[in-house]
Amino acid sequence: MRQLRESMVARLTAGTGISARVAGALRTVPRHLFLPGLEPREVYRDEPIITKRDELGIPISSSSQPAIMAAMLDQLDVAPGHRVLEIGAGTGYNAALLSLLAAPGGTVVTVDIDPDLVRQAREHLAAAGHPEVRVECGDGAAGFPGAAPYDRIIATVGVWDLEPAWAAQLAPGGRFVGPLDLRGVQVSAAFERRPGRWESVSVVPAGFMRMRGTAAGPERIRPITEGLMLFLPEHREVGDLWPALSGRPVADVPTGVRAARGEISVGFGLWLATHEPSWCTFTGEPRLLPPAPVNAPGMRMTQGVAEDGSLALLTADLSALGFGPRGAELADRLAAHVTAWHEAGRPGAEGLRVQAWDLPLTTRPPAGATVIDKRATRLVIGYRDA
């Protein structure tokens, strides 16, 4: 087990350049005790592991990918003596890492809405020698006022908005880190408080199960046909897409742009989400989608635009395929987004600057910024070199 853990940390250190303190915590905490019943070689891969699904088979909890966990822990910058709140207990593994980073003298409270996960996290933490971590059952949108204020708050679940309770429970000079939804695309943003707003100090790519409870977002996942799912960042009518998609393409618009998979899924994904009102994601079996930017065994995933029973899909070579009565128009629009992103220098998550202004708000956003209204905040998004 020790050798597998050391190998995982060595790969992470070589690939992402994580800090020595976070690497030390990963070397110390035995991940396999938080995922009992799985083969150790599976546990110590740099991959997320689904731990619970809902009645429809959709994943609702997982042990996150270690590389993303490490990146977020570095963003959080926990120091000895810090009081830490975690939203989303999951298996308890991240809480154990937090406890090591906050020692000596620190405290960790982790909150989860799912009683089964709370029970399991307590068992796992006890087995791993971390009974000092406090595991509470509750809606993470409310934080946990009983142990506030906190020097650090981290959400290990995708959040749609920055909840007022988190700002109220954060100590002066504190920091919040979490996977924030930007119209369906997530980034892990580290925020600090400024008068009337949250201000990002770093942004990295991320992807997490989304929050449940009162803070759940408006995202929708709906089947197009058996084996093919459509993700929408919010509820809207797109019509019946299967008659169009099951037919022949009506347009194939090349862009001449070439990019790596990570650039497309993160960089272009963010661009499309913040520039195209009708953007969406398609995930399905290979037989149901053309070659896509993301091709994995048994699955393809691509971004697109959908309206009125018509759609355009991004292909593996970054062409835009149009389907349905308005397919040619939507393909032209999707291709234009690829070109605009490329000409802007292919910005990615790391170049983002995010402000989350408390509502109600009278301040005007700067010209050229993307504005996304949430329940409690107004996001103002731009690129740092813009």
TrEMBL record:
Its EC number is 2.1.1.77. The keyword Nucleus does not apply. One of its GO terms (biological process) is methylation. Keywords: Cytoplasm, Methyltransferase, S-adenosyl-L-methionine, Transferase. SUPFAM superfamilies: S-adenosyl-L-methionine-dependent methyltransferases (SSF53335). GO terms for molecular function: methyltransferase activity. InterPro entries: PCMT, SAM-dependent_MTases_sf. It is an enzyme of class 2 (transferase). The keyword S-adenosyl-L-methionine applies. It is found in: Cytoplasm. It comes from the Bacteria. CDD domains: AdoMet_MTases (cd02440). Belongs to the methyltransferase superfamily. L-isoaspartyl/D-aspartyl protein methyltransferase family. This is Protein-L-isoaspartate O-methyltransferase. It comes from Nonomuraea typhae.
